[in-house]
Design brief:
By secondary structure, the chain is of the alpha/beta class. The chain is 51% helix and 13% strand. The protein is globular and about 55 Å long. The longest helix is centred in the N-terminal third of the chain and has 25 residues. An 8-stranded parallel beta barrel has the order 1-2-3-4-5-6-7-8, surrounded by 5 helices.
């Protein structure tokens, strides 16, 4: 029950008690009025709650940041996306700054027979309307659509408070039909709440969240739950660290890491911030034990852990980045995996041995 409805019920109850104390009775007309009033308040509250909730996001979104990292063929990239669509993955994440990613998805849309959803981004430090309009126009052209399904807004430097103005340009584009929904990207709790209080109708916030990086638990999940937002989470397998490949392996040297993928280099700092390599091995062994029970890989269990955390809080999606279709079967398994209380407890016991999450969303990356 909403606040308005609750206060209304309290007021009517006080009136009724006053009448009873005075030995008076409600007439049938008054009873009918009270019942009608209470029903109206209940209906208004239901509308209020419904307004705060956005439609559930797809459980898994396919990330298209590194589509050409292994194979520089755009045709091969489209075939990868087709393979994922055939397996039931029809939502894809991209950005205006991801090189040719948007245009590859546009070609994919032209070739694909069936509904697709594309989540793109507006990544900027320019609060001008002209910039928002220009980037929107280019994204629509690249994706070959009249309206962008979802635009996630990323602002580099919060010391410049013009991010509210920049976000409102997206709201204006939404009003004009050029954007379906507006979301945030890498916003911490403080600045996310500022956007919401300014009237920006956000439906989600894209954040980094994994067993090795639990910073969303330091405020953003609580805020999202309170304000009716969902989270879309990337880095759920920590760029490949949370995988069977590293179970029982010696810790890579700094030189080894520097020769790895962009994702591997990026997420090593999250691993180091959580705990030493020996503790990481204990976590991998625990995930392997859970995976043995569920017939799943370590990576699939790690992804399922994030999905489970979202299911029990604000709701949302995981973003699984792809370069080709080599992990397709594993991604299908992760999507359908369900953890139980014993699995959660076993994983939590190891997590608690490491450092508690420090800072808020992207606090370490922003400097």
């Amino acid at each position: 029950m909403g606040v308005v409805a609750a206060l209304s019920v309290w007021f009517l109850l006080m009136v009724w008690l006053a009448h009873m104390a005075a030995g008076q009775r409600f007439s049938p007309q008054r009873v009918a009025f009270v019942c009608t009033f209470l029903y109206a308040m209940h209906y208004a509250t239901a509308l209020e709650i419904e307004e705060k909730r956005c439609a559930p996001l797809p459980r898994v979104v396919i990330g298209c940041w590194q589509l050409l990292e292994r194979d520089n063929s755009r045709d091969a990239a489209v075939r990868t996306l087709e393979a994922y669509a055939a397996a039931g993955f029809t939502a894809f994440d991209t950005a205006d700054i991801y090189g040719p990613s948007e245009s590859i998805l546009g070609a994919f849309r032209e070739a694909h027979d069936g509904p697709l959803t594309f989540h793109t981004k507006y990544v900027t430090q320019d609060s001008s309307k002209a910039n928002a309009v220009a980037v929107n126009k280019q994204s629509r052209k690249s994706l070959r659509v009249e309206s962008l399904d979802l635009v996630q807004f990323h602002w580099w430097d919060f010391s410049d408070g013009a991010y509210v103005e920049a976000a409102k340009h997206l709201v204006d584009l939404r009003t004009k039909g050029f954007i379906g929904e507006v979301a945030a990207c890498n916003f911490d709790a403080k600045h996310l709440e500022t956007l919401l209080d300014a009237g920006v109708p956000l439906v989600a916030n894209q954040v980094q969240y994994s067993l090795l990086d639990r910073r969303p638990e330091n405020g953003v999940i609580a805020l999202a739950t309170k304000r009716g937002l969902q989270l879309t989470c990337f880095g759920t397998a920590a760029g490949g660290w949370l995988s069977d490949k590293y179970l029982g392996a010696p810790e890579p040297t700094r030189s080894d890491v520097s020769k790895g993928t962009v994702s591997l280099r990026m997420y090593k700092s999250s691993l180091d911030a959580w705990g030493p390599w020996s503790l990481f091995q204990e976590l991998l062994k625990t995930l392997r034990a859970v995976g043995d029970e569920l017939d799943a890989s370590i990576a699939a269990v790690a992804v399922a852990w994030v999905l489970d955390a979202l299911d029990r809080s604000c709701g949302g999606s995981v973003i699984l980045g792809v370069r080709d279709a080599s992990h397709l079967d594993d991604h299908v398994r992760a999507r359908d995996l369900a953890l139980d209380d014993m699995h959660r407890a076993a994983i939590r016991a190891v997590l608690d041995k490491g450092a508690a999450p420090r800072g808020d969303i992207w606090s370490r990356e922003r400097g």
